[in-house]
Task: inverse folding
């Protein structure tokens, strides 16, 4: 079976259109990120996140009054689809070995006697630790980017390297734009997904660039534009099929996965779609544009 | 075909190695739980003491085997099995430079001791950085464990001052608070903020009158609102304050600290119920302890067997002192018959019994007032393993309830399976026979990935499962690259053999390039360092490396063999 036959879609000649689309999406993402901002999780803000499950349903108002009693009236309160409560409280000092969750548990026992409850999740990140975590995440993202840059600059010439890095920035920015738009909580897991998207985006760019590089050597008679356009068309079927298989699993995770993995799956799904788009429509076109502005001497 | 034989042998060897690596994991999660259940059932059925003893020996043997198997298995992270992860920081602010040096190590040792005695299966306790301690305890009563680990457990025996002296001291402090500049304003705002009923000093007077007939009391009415005595009431034979007013009272008492009588300190008991409302007892103690917790040789939980009716059916911790310290204790008790000796744990007075006789044998006890033995059991553990060199603070906690963990595994596996099934079907539909080959590669991919992870004793976390799913999605990528290339070569009119050859050769560089970048980001992620993300990073890295190997070598080997064996002239791909 074949999904995509021998195509000859004029990707290259329509490139201005794609540049405009990408430009608009990038600017929109930047605006959303700047205006709306990210919904940072306790990993980065510090504080407590507690998920409570009751054996008998409890109303949000009753829960709120419990929070007021433990002096956390301002805490974020959320009810999920199972009726569990997600409570986010700011970092605070408690006497002795107590934490927010132990104070809360005690109050819950007093306020709802006979109603069994379980703390499904109990996360507390102290201010010092959250600061360190921010540093570590920046380090990881920095190391990842530098590693990719070094690898790409070893394996490709400057033009393709720049193209790959540009598409990487493009994919990351737009993915982050979606994260901000949908108010997804930014946790270390979401950062992990973003970094994976980065790796994956470069992966796609490389497949297209590899093909252009190979064909430039083989097809000496044809113009650089034609070579690029054909290379995109030749790799199109692979690009789409791989994206589809990756999408299959990220969608499966998004639909069936546990709650705490859904944000990860969301980022991966959005990221791989954007990554596929950019590797087809942006990377080669960028190199073409570069070639037009500054023709390399060898080819003239 | 000599090369093929060697390749085949290597392939078989790799599978054998993989199976060998996965056997303990299979046993741990699929065989041992059943055995454990049947052993427990037999223990419950055991009719005679003999039977029960025999089963218990078997259970001990089983536990040893379980620990051994667990060591060689693929572990499940706390986010999947449920449990508690704490990061503690040793508070060195009050230690001397000399003591601070190895405080972290000493704290680690003490905590390890406590956890070992608490009896948690395969805990992780390690030092992170200079004075942080990471603790992972699968499936425990989290609050109880937190209390057990976090207690500093500094035990002191201190002499209690008489009620009369305590009363006088408080009164003197009140006078000073009133007279002292600055101290005054705070007390007044306090009084203004919480209008208080006229304090019940008559009760105080009565109590002092009945217990110490020979003492004359200061005139009642002296205790005004906003004064220390204004808060104080009587509880049993002691002074105490309402638990609700405890923070205010304590703040006021702390302000007066510079005026505390020299050589003495004020400490409180734990919160307890008295006539239906929570209260805390207040004690005035000699600061210099008569004895320290380090004197304790052994501590065991035991049911209370004394004569006090209030303590019937409750649990105590019975303490045994070392021989030398027992002699000191005998002296102390002999000298102070009729006085009260407080047992103070982490600046909280656990109990303050009156010394009835000289205690020569170095036996003492701490009452818990609990019918449940848990507290006495934990306290005994804490006292046996000794005090922490300094208080510890919880700086990070990541705990997951067991039911959420089970749910995460179930849904994670479901998502992986659904993703995998869709990919498998898609590949067969799209590439027919070659698709089957790619699916076979996918299967081996998963098998080798789990085997390698088990071999590395790594931990499977929830993000790790996500990485597993991603590996499924990307595993076929390498094969897709190859197959698309072969299709192209066939279109150029090459023979099947030649097309397959050049397809693999040409795609190889691209496959390596493409996977290398993802591996680079996965390795970078490893540096974030938190457990679940590390699980993601290791799983993804291992998955991608195995991807390249299976796609480039394994499927090619099978492809070549298939083409040669059936002399395939026309390839449907």
Result:
């Amino acid at each position: 079976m074949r999904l995509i036959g021998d195509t000859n879609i004029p990707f290259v000649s329509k490139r201005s259109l794609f540049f405009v689309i990408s430009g608009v999406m990038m600017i929109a993402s930047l605006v959303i990120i700047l205006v709306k901002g990210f919904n940072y999780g306790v990993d980065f803000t510090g504080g407590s996140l507690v998920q409570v499950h009751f054996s008998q349903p409890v109303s949000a108002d009753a829960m709120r009054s419990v929070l007021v009693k433990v002096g956390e009236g301002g805490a974020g309160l959320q009810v999920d689809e199972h009726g569990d409560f997600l409570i986010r409280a700011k970092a605070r000092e408690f006497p002795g070995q107590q934490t927010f969750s132990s104070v809360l548990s005690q109050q819950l026992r007093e306020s709802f006697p006979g109603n069994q409850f379980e703390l499904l999740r109990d996360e507390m990140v102290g201010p010092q630790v959250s600061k360190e975590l921010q540093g570590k995440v920046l380090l990881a993202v920095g190391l990842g980017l530098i590693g990719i840059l070094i690898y790409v600059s070893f394996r490709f010439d400057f033009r393709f390297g720049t193209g790959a890095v540009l598409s990487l920035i493009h994919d990351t920015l737009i993915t982050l734009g979606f994260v901000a738009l949908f108010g997804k909580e930014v946790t270390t897991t979401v950062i992990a997904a973003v970094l994976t998207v980065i790796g994956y985006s470069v992966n796609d760019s490389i497949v297209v660039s590899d093909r252009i590089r190979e064909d430039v050597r083989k097809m000496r008679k044809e113009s650089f534009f034609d070579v690029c356009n054909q290379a995109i068309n030749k790799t199109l079927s692979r690009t789409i099929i791989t994206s589809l298989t990756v999408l299959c699993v990220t969608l499966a995770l998004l639909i069936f996965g546990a709650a705490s993995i859904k944000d990860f799956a969301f980022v991966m799904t959005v990221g791989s779609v954007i990554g596929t788009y950019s590797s087809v429509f942006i990377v080669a076109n960028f190199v073409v544009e570069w070639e037009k502005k500054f023709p390399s001497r060898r080819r003239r | 075909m000599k090369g093929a034989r060697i390749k085949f042998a290597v392939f078989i060897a790799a599978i054998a190695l993989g199976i060998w690596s996965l056997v303990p994991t299979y046993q741990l999660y699929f065989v041992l739980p059943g055995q454990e259940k049947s052993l427990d059932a037999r223990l419950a059925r055991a009719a005679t003491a003999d039977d029960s003893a025999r089963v218990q020996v078997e259970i001990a043997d089983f536990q040893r085997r379980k620990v051994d198997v667990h060591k060689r298995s693929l572990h499940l992270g706390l986010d999947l099995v449920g449990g508690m992860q704490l990061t503690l920081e040793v508070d060195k602010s009050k230690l001397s430079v000399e003591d601070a040096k190895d405080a972290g190590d000493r704290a680690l040792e003490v905590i390890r001791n406590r956890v070992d005695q608490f009896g948690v299966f395969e805990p992780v306790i390690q030092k992170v950085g200079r004075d942080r301690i990471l603790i992972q305890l699968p499936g425990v009563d989290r609050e109880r464990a937190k209390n057990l680990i976090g207690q500093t457990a500094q035990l002191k025996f201190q002499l209690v001052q008489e009620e009369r002296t305590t009363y006088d001291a408080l009164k003197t402090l009140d006078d000073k608070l009133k007279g002292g500049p600055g101290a005054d304003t705070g007390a007044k705002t306090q009084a203004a903020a919480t209008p208080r009923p006229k304090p019940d000093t008559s009760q105080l007077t009565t109590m002092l009158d009945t217990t110490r007939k020979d003492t004359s009391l200061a005139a009642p009415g002296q205790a005004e609102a906003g004064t220390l005595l204004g808060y104080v009431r009587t509880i049993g034979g002691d002074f105490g304050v309402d638990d609700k007013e405890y923070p205010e009272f304590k703040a006021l008492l702390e302000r007066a600290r510079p005026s505390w009588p020299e050589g003495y300190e004020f400490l409180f008991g734990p919160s307890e119920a008295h006539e239906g409302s929570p209260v805390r007892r207040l004690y005035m103690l000699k600061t210099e302890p008569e004895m320290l917790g380090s004197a304790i040789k052994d501590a065991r939980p035991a049911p209370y067997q004394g004569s006090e009716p209030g303590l019937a059916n409750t649990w105590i911790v019975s303490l045994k002192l070392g021989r030398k310290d027992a002699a000191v204790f005998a002296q102390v008790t002999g000298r102070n018959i009729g006085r009260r000796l407080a047992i103070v744990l982490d600046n909280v007075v656990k109990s303050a019994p009156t010394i009835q006789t000289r205690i020569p044998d170095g036996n003492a006890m701490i009452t818990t007032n609990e019918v449940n033995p848990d507290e006495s059991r934990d306290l005994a553990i804490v006292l046996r393993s000794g005090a922490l060199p300094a208080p510890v603070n919880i700086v990070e906690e990541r705990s997951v309830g067991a039911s959420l963990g089970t749910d995460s595994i179930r849904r994670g596996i479901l998502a992986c399976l659904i993703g995998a099934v869709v990919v498998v079907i898609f590949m067969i539909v799209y590439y027919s026979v070659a698709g089957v080959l790619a699916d076979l590669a996918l299967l081996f991919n998963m098998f080798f990935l789990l085997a390698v992870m088990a071999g590395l004793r790594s931990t499977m976390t929830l993000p790790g499962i996500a990485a597993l799913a991603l590996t499924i999605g990307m595993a076929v990528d390498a094969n897709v690259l190859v197959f698309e290339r072969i299709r192209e070569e066939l279109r150029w009119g090459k023979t099947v053999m030649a097309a397959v050859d050049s397809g693999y050769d040409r795609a190889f560089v691209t496959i390596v390039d493409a996977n290398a970048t993802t591996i680079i980001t996965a390795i970078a992620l490893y540096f974030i360092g938190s457990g679940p993300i590390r699980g993601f990073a290791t799983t993804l890295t291992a998955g991608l490396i195995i991807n390249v190997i299976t796609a480039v070598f394994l499927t090619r080997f099978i492809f070549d063999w298939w083409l040669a064996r059936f002399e395939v002239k026309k390839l449907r791909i």
User: Anything to note?
Assistant: The CA atoms of residues 167 and 229 of chain B lie 8 Å apart. The two ends of chain B are 25 Å apart (CA to CA).
